[in-house]
Design a protein that fits this description.
Strand content: under 5%
Largest sheet: none
Order of helices and strands: HHHHHHHHHHHHHHHH
Radius of gyration: 19 Å
Number of helices: 16
Shape: globular
Helix content: over 70%
């Protein structure tokens, strides 16, 4: 099987999503390390300016070749640029100033459920019952993880203004993933990511000027900041979005978003390797529950029901890189 045939298969879709998660998961570790040294919109703007400059030699030709299609769908491109790039990370960093870590983690787990609901009731995609059951099981794993196995902590939750911001990012993620699955088949992945870089960076500028009071203020470019920006621009932005968008196009937004649940345990493993944060028994157990929920959503049920579902979903969309 050659590459062009392989990248259309569901196996390729799952490979893409795993690569996307691996590239994205260190995002939270990097953001945590920079939280006290740089403001949210400033960090997001620098990140995407760097990503745009790095990707420009590789993506501009495809962007220019497909410019008519891109600008024909400029409203959709604006929506996914705002929800996936300009607003998402900026709002997450803003929420972290008032929202507790427990609240942020739990509220953000609504993203896969919201994505599935939007796909089913707005875009009329067929969603099986086991998808919702898998989401419920993986959500339980997340709850176990963020409460450190002490579910009584849920009774101690206090809600703040930042919680509404996190809820908005969960909706943004759902809108981005369901919308990008519809636009991705109309343009190549290279042109799509180049478009997101350009549109997304442009729409961050007003947020940056609002944050700085209308002045151009740059942080001190320490070695830590430089290396963090390199990681965020190349791995957590360009490569992550290329792989993630390709996966969403092949396997669909609801199935792709199931793997969102793997971000906390994978991030914990990366933090263990990078900044020597310990991994405890509850984190391992929670990770296994999360993976079990994903596998049940993807492969649970009888062989007959899985074949029927495959017939209902039809053939995957073609991926053009």
């Amino acid at each position: 099987m050659n590459w062009n045939s392989f990248k259309q298969t569901k196996t390729a879709g799952y490979v893409f999503i795993v690569l996307g998660i691996l590239n994205w998961s260190g995002n939270f570790v990097a953001a945590r390390g920079l939280a006290d040294s740089i403001d949210p919109a400033t960090l997001n703007l620098l990140r995407w300016v760097c990503a745009t400059l790095v990707f420009l030699p590789f993506g501009f030709r495809a962007f220019w070749r497909e410019r008519r299609v891109i600008f024909r769908h400029w409203k959709v491109m604006t929506l996914i640029a705002l929800t996936g790039i300009s607003l998402y990370d900026t709002v997450v960093f803003m929420a972290g100033r008032t929202s507790e870590a427990l609240n942020m983690s739990l509220i953000s787990t609504l993203s896969p459920l919201l994505t599935t609901l939007i796909a089913q009731f707005i875009f009329k995609e067929k969603v099986s019952q086991r998808m919702y059951m898998g989401i419920a099981l993986s959500t339980f794993g997340i709850v176990m993880l963020v409460t450190d196995g002490n579910l009584s902590r849920l009774l101690e939750m206090r809600f703040a203004q930042g919680d509404l911001l996190i809820l908005s990012t969960a909706m943004m993620s759902a809108i981005y993933n369901t919308t990008v699955s519809k636009i991705a088949g109309k343009i190549s992945q290279t042109a799509l990511v180049m478009s997101l870089c350009l549109f997304g960076t442009f729409y961050i500028i007003p947020l940056y000027l609002w944050e700085t009071g209308g002045h151009i203020v740059l942080p001190e470019f320490t070695p830590t900041l430089m290396w963090s920006l390199f990681y965020l621009a190349v791995f957590a932005s360009i490569l992550c979005y290329l792989f993630w968008n390709a996966a969403v196009q092949v396997i669909g937004a609801p199935k792709a978003m199931l793997f969102y649940y793997t971000l906390p345990p994978v991030s914990a493993l990366i933090a263990w390797f990078v900044i020597d944060e310990p991994v405890n028994q509850n984190q391992v157990l929670s990770g296994l529950i999360i993976v079990a929920g994903i596998l049940f959503a993807l492969y649970g049920g009888s062989p007959k029901s899985r074949r029927q579902e495959a017939d209902n979903y039809g053939e995957p969309s073609k991926v053009t890189l």
